[in-house]
Amino acid sequence: MDDEHNHHQHKAKEKIIFDHGIDPLEVYLALIIDGDEIKKGDVVPRDGNHMHFGKEVETTILNLDPGKHILTLQAVNSNRESLGFDFSSQIEIEILGETEENTVEIKPGSSYSIRTALYESWVKTNREKTENDSGGKLGYVHIQGMSQPSLERFEAELYSVGHDKEALVIDVRDNGGGWTTDMLLQILMVERHAYTIPRGAKDGEFGYPQNRLSMYSWTKPIIVLCNQNSYSNAEIFSHAVKTLKRGKLVGVPTRGAVISTGSKGLIDGSSMRYPFRGWFVADGEKLGANQENGPAIPDIIVEITPEDEINGNDPQLDAAIKSLLKDLR
Whole-model pTM? Predict the structure, then answer.
């Protein structure tokens, strides 16, 4: 659903989906006593040396023999499968005295902090891959949601990530929607009416003062990644990029779940949501395809298979990098 009508109600926290298949709401913690970290995908046992924390459990009491011990916190999914070495933490402790009783309190991080760390790790991996595979020519940004916090992060990363880059990979996969497509287009669709040359500029150097614009602008080439988990306003954005010929789409068709909704209170104090506006692709001055049940179809369709996920491969990102580099030649 497109939430433009109620955008003032949005909060900073957003649904986070990462690693194309791991449900962020199903991240748990296991405590490993005197054992090694467990590689990604392997099941963490449930025994005396492997303790699993429930959602509401924040502390536990351990009965440890005197001597040195290694305690490992390992993130796991709902099937008790390890999320890998990157999502574990170890400490070494020493219990003194042969008969002295010691209590060790273990306080795991919150599930939200684990989900955030997993998301940021995924973005970092994609960004490093994009820069390495392109020889430093391309930048990568992921738009987590079509909301004010994500818009501000996108605008900031155009400078921090896009500086000195020739083109940009914009990723809206696993983006649940919101209301900021038009603001993103203000950034990406700026038409240059003039250029400036500042005092002291190098020969051939010219540009335009960013402080004259309402938002930071990006006029260099882009390519956009979308998938089946791109919803609502993320789909409107994908349609817009294709309709306006701003760049190519890569991935798989979006969900096809685009409609504006509102909310009405009922006499018993409950409320219901209802659609009040349909969205259609612009065909010149005419109505084009209905975006409800009419997904944005990528120019380059690339699937991600279970085998790709297991091996940590991202053929969609690979295809986007390859296509964008080809367009730069």
Answer: 0.69
